[in-house]
Design goal:
Elements (H helix, E strand, L loop, with lengths): L1 H10 L5 H15 L12 E6 L10 H19 L3 E3 L3 E2 L4 H10 L3 H18 L10 E2 L3 H16 L3 E11 L4 E3 L4 E2 L3 E2 L7 E10 L5 H4 L9 H11 L2 E10 L8 E6 L10 E4 L6 H4 L5 H13 L2 H4 L9 E9 L4 E7 L11 E4 L5 H10 L7 E2 L17 E2 L10 H15 L2 E6 L5 E2 L1 E2 L9 E4 L3 E4 L27 H4 E3 L6 E4 L3 E2 L1 H4 L3 H4 L12 H7 L4 E5 L6 H14 L12 E4 L2 E3 L2 E2 L11 H7 L1 H10 L7 E2 L5 H16 L9 H23 L3 H21 L4 H15 L4 H10 L16 H4 L3 E8 L2 E9 L4 H9 L2 H7 L4 E7 L3 E6 L1
The structure holds one RNA strand of 87 nucleotides.
Amino acid sequence: MFWIELNFCYMAHKYNPQEIEKRWQEKWAIDRIYEVKEGDNRPEFYCLTMFPYTSGDLHIGHWYAMAPSDVYARFKRMQGYNVLHPMGFDAFGLPAENAAISRGIHPYEWTMNNIEKMRHQLKSMGAIYDWNREVITCLPEYYKWTQWFFLKLYHAGLAYRAKAPVNWCPKCQTVLANEQVVGEGSCERCGTTVTKKDLEQWFFRITKYAEELLDFSGINWPERIKIMQKNWIGKSDGAEIFFALEHEGLEQKEIRVFTTRPDTIFGVTFFLLSPEHPLVGQLTTPEQKAEVAEYVAWCRRQPEYMRTALGRDKTGVFLGSYVINRLNRERVPVWITDYVLPTYGTGAVMGVPAHDERDFDFAQKFHLPIRPVIVPPDWSGGELTQAYAELGIMINSGQFTGLSSEQGYEAICDLLEEKGWGRRTVSYRLRDWLISRQRYWGAPIPLVYCDKCGIVPVPEKDLPVLLPPDAEFKPTGESPLKYCPSFVNTTCPKCSGPAQRETDTMDTFMCSSWYFLRYTSPKTDEAPFDTEKVKYWLPVDLYTGGAEHAVMHLFYARFFIKALRDMGLVDFGEPFTHLFNQGTIIYRGAKMSKSKGNVVAPDEYVAELGADAVRGYLMFIGPWELGGEWSDNGIVGISRWLNKAWGLVEKQYASRAVEPETEKELRHFIHKTIKKVTEDLERFRFNTMLASLMEFTNYLSEVDIARNVSIPLWQEAISCFLLLLAPTAPHLAEELWIRTGHPYSIHNESWPNFDEELVKEEQITLPIQINGKLRDKVVVSASVSEAEVKELVLARERVKAYTDGRKILNIIYVPKRVVSIVVR
RNA sequence: GCCGGGGUGGCGGAACUGGUAGACGCGGCGGACUUAAAAUCCGCUUCCCGUGAGGGAGUGUGGGUUCGAGUCCCGCCCUCGGCACCA
């Protein structure tokens, strides 16, 4: 009994993160100190973290994305910005539906339970999120507007319906999402090999913006993300060339190819179509019919990943017919092969085996002629053993022989355009955005199919098209909406006759393409957002998140904003001015993720060491953009340091003898630290920021032992330390701020400024190198002259030992850096 | 294959525009306090030779530029991400 009481009294003065974190979180919430309002005279700063998917558990990987950006947001706030740093949930998606199928829980219930749990975990982090602005994409008040945007895009001509191949399991008779195709292209449920099936689906015309999406001027994004998006768009300059068709009974008199190398046109020895090309049937001669049909069927059975795998043996079949190369009037045989993709260019290729590696392999396999038409500039007449894909000098090219590839390119294009045999053009790898999902748990596409009127958009006043609560979840793989008569059967908004609803829902990337607009006015119910508030906050000043979204979310959001701008709904064309990607957290050799089963929950660390320690440790691992390995024992270092800081602040400092020199030194240290912490925060170097704060506390411990500075200066040092610590360890800093007699709250205080004069070093240590090797060091005043340094250095015993009896060839003095002596 | 990041002590990582390599932390060793342990505090800790002062080597690897290279240039190796038969 006695023991316990003693212990308790002792504990009251010890750092107790569990107690103080809970207490401050409650107080901050009650006082609403993080509530965000528009329109005071501070400059605004929109600091956004990618919102999480509602998987159910927040793991250390999530904290790694969120804690440092909260630190940055807090830092900006203390610097005097009006900061919006919101949080919400990406709440539609497949896992919710799978849970419904396997466990019989309704997706809504599953999702909202997860949100409940995640919100609780997020709150334990102690971030400045204003929960009044929370956005949840699966709620009707949100997806009503997702549907509204679909209609806007539809009316702007940016949405269209087309047949497109989807993954199809012949055994389950169902459509599969890419992530449901496992291993070597088989169905995740039954293991059957997945094939392709054409379905009518909805697309957004993102390709219309291909050119503009290549333009990154005016936005500060990581180079590698920009490169990834550029590669994704895959712009190629080239020409479309029309080959003449003289096929009996065929109306079409020409067929087009896209090429980036019109200069190689005289090297065409065969012509290739993709097996899916619409003319395959008509260009097949009766003798070839059986073989062609068999090949086409075989191609359809090939899974996508096999087809695009590199290094496969070339396959193909001759159709029996020919096309004419108008430039040299040659008849060339038409083949089909699966390495020609139906979705790129025109789905047809001119075969130039001498100058294309793939065509070369194909020609070798099927013993087709290989005719060189380009040679290297230094060519000596040797034989061609592999495709020469570089530029060079044209040979065997009629009137163009002798020109360089570049000249030939232009000359041939000129001729093609003059004769009407072709034209210069640009091709993109980018395809339109397929937004249809044959799923329940997404925003329903607000369209109705009427027998009389055709496709009819749901009128705006009838939004949202609600998800029926009574759909049945069976493992059929098809949308439960399809089998829900109360949903499907409706009346036509135009003619009031019977009609059916579209049963596909929208890709969830649609929901995440505009959520950052909704945060500005989450409760607005007559529009998706309040235009004035979007004007005030947008574009996002800093967007942080994982690089895995480079060509999905980040790309779609850019498109979306450009489309909204063109409709006059917003007045900017780029959503995210500054993008920063944090690295990934590795655990047990893999990226931490729920699907890999290697997650570490923050909860137990929070319970044991406190949220401040977890926040701090994540930032201390290394540079934020590089990520790193989570280790259980590394965190104790931060925890110990926070304890040490507590002890340092809580102890009663008593001055023994005030020494002006040490006071000066401490003042210098204070300002040096403010500068370092400020600059490190500015460039997201949280690890070195913490290192410098640790150096500061180490230094303060020495001062505390020596007790040779005045009490006011000591207090100044401590206050400054707490302010610098506040973004990183908000709870601890607040507690100590109050305990040292300051007014509540530290989080409404201003960031400390540093005095450049006080940052300057007065004394510097100069290393002395002799013939490039470090031999001595000398402490000098920072204002020392070059002549003084040289004299001083040459007089030193250790230097003399190397210079006596030798000739000094050179003495280099780099001010404040180094003295380098060259002797012989 | 192409594009991009990265290779620094036992470990995570520092190092400004080329100027004292290894800050800070973890771990380890030694010491103080304790009956003891934990916690805490102090000291040491790149490797090799040397009792020591000191000397030598050293940032994946081989060259180069320079008074001086982790940092710049050329060639190679490993590793992590992205894209991948895109005509």
